[in-house]
Amino acid sequence: MIATSGIVFRLAWRNLWRNYRRTAIILAAIAAGIWAMIFMIAFTRGMIESMVSDGIRSIPGHVQIHHPDFRNDPTVDNLMSRPGGELAASLDGKDVAAWSSRVRVPAVISSERGSRGVTLVGIDPVAETSISFVADDVVEGRHLEDDRDRGLVLGRRLLERLESDVGKRVVVMTQGADNDIVDRGFRVVGVYESEIASTEEAFAFAGRATLQELLGIGDRVSEIAVLGTDRREAEQLYLRLADTAGADVEVLPWYELNSYLGATMRTMDGFVIVWIVVIFLALSFGFVNTLVMAVFERVREIGLMMALGMKPRTIVAQIVAESILLLAIGLAAGNVLAWATIYSLSDGIDFSFVGEGLEIMGAASVLKPSLGIGDVLLSTAIVLGLGFLASLSPAIRASRYQPVEALTKE
Amino acid sequence: MNSVRCADLRKTYKQGDQDVIGLDGVSLEVEQEGFVCLRSPSGAGKTTLLNAMGGLDRPDSGEVYVAGKRIDNLSKGKLAEMRLRNIGFVFQAYNLIPVLTAMENVEFVMHLQGVPAPERAKRAGEALNEVGLEGLENRRPAKMSGGQQQRVAVARAIVSRPAIVLADEPTANLDSSSARHLMALFARINETRGTTFVIATHDEMVMSYAKRLIRMRDGKIVEDQLQET
Questions:
Q1: Which domain holds residue B8?
Q2: CA A407 to chain centre
Q3: CA–CA–CA angle A42, A326, B141 (5° rounding)
């Protein structure tokens, strides 16, 4: 078979261009299908990446460490000590980009004109810089300067709901360490904006030490948020931290902290395969029809080649080679088109006109297509694999001709 | 040793609702270096016999031997291999692969045989020279006359030195001058290379080149005679 591969591919290539118009039409259809396939995958991947990226910033981090009961009852009753010993050493590992400890309690914020329930988060703004969204997204006033800052940073929407403004005072009320209600006046020092608007209403930020003092909890914290160097290696980071953190705390990866996001990521791989198969099935009608026509037109030629000694399996190889060449050219053209489209949209596509819908899904309103080499290889492999299978039927049919019958076909 | 031997071949075709007898107990031996013409009116069985001898069609019963090996019971793949190694074909029409040049058409069989590229090119060039087509190596069939195409087919049939060349009405689509040239070429190859030729024809000019003339009627051999050329 190797000895005949040269003539097989030469015949396949030249046969492909015997009917230029038909080949050009089917190639255009394949290229358009591949373009749609790759672009939609890149677009969906971009949307999912946006959801995951924003989700990880609002969780925040790839891994979190809590008191075992904190997630069921996120109050001051379920706090943990600041990390020390082996865990503190682990948090300085090479695979940790940043980590921060936070205090997180439910609270009510009241202004002169209204009240709102929020999650009040006490942070160390310096440690928090590369973990959460606040530092990047303060759009008015200033960010917290250190964990003893006595100001409050609120989201734009919350500020609008409270009809308050930067520089004005609000009252924060929550439950202290002895289960008594504690309250304190804070001055709003900054306003942040988030790509996900609901976040702006849900979270208010204060200095960690200031909040610990208000709650009377000493230096205990609600959670330790850890950001790894690469999201795809979060699993290893999680396992390493879980190994060193000890049994008195709970260590969770991002996909369990936000199970919707985790499930979305897992579903995405299945979606990619389904999408590739659906597009290919749509293409396959034209593709197989073209092959059947090409074989039907060349019955006498196939008979001649068989008479001269070409074996049935070589006939199959020639028809399959023709289909693979057709698909390979279509794949190359479709990939180039898709890459060009994605490149031209690298600044993102503005979907703000459906921004609320995207927000419900947890995605930003500007979506950037994200093309992964893995998806390109997967789609190429699936298309070539299915193309091979689809071409087997006309190829096997051609190989079953009796030479004498094929030679006399009109 | 015989090039081809057929024993009691029978073949019946369906034509509409009717059974048509193609071969009716044909037995025949073709000696090495023979130059045999099968003559008969159309439909008398000469092409059917040629197809059975070449392994292009299977008889309903009987046995066919090529170069001493029985071929009528071989699988499709083994039959193809047998044709590739032992038999050259020249058909009446549609002899060449249209997407290949004259040179590539001649090389085609050697490709399938796995002959290395340099030797393939050398032998194909020599074969084209032998049939008088030097200078037309890179021409495609569509750019050649019927006679030139038949000569390419002859070059392809002889290039791998088969034991036997089977030709079915090889001159039917040629003018008389081209037909004479082709038959002279067959005779020369038969003389110089010792290649056995079996030619189905009803052309008297073709028959004049034969060393042995076999007449068929209704699927049977009714006359088998040697003749001076």
A1: 2-226
A2: 57
A3: 160
How far is it, in rounded angstroms, from Cα B200 to Cα B146?
A: 19
Q: Express each pLDDT in A345-380 by its tens digit.
A: 888 787 777 666 666 666 667 778 888 888 889 888
Closest residue, chain A, to B85 (C-alpha): A309
From residue A66, alpha-carbon distances to A30, A120, A224, A240, A253 in Å are: 52, 16, 7, 16, 12
Under an 8 A CB cutoff, do A6 and B111 touch?
Answer: yes
Nearest CB neighbour to B109, from listed A300, A308, A311: A308
What pLDDT, on a 0 to 100 scale, did the predictor assign at position A267? 82
Q: Strand, helix or coil at A186?
A: strand
Could you give the number of structural domains in chain A? 2
**Domains held by chain B: number:** 1
Contact B97 A305 (CB under 8 A): yes
- From chain A residues 11-40, the ones with a CB under 8 A of any chain B CB are 11, 14-15, 18
B95 to chain A: which residues are within 8 Å by CB? Answer: 304
Domain containing A316 equals 2-55+262-408
- The owner of tokens 């044709």 is B83
- Structure ipTM: 0.92
Shortest Cα distance, chain A CAs vs residue B6, angstroms: 18
pTM of the complete model beyond 0.90: no
pLDDT band at B67 (very low <50, low <70, confident <90, very high): confident
Which pLDDT score is estimated for A134? 60
pLDDT digits over B191-206, tens only? 988 899 999 998 899 9
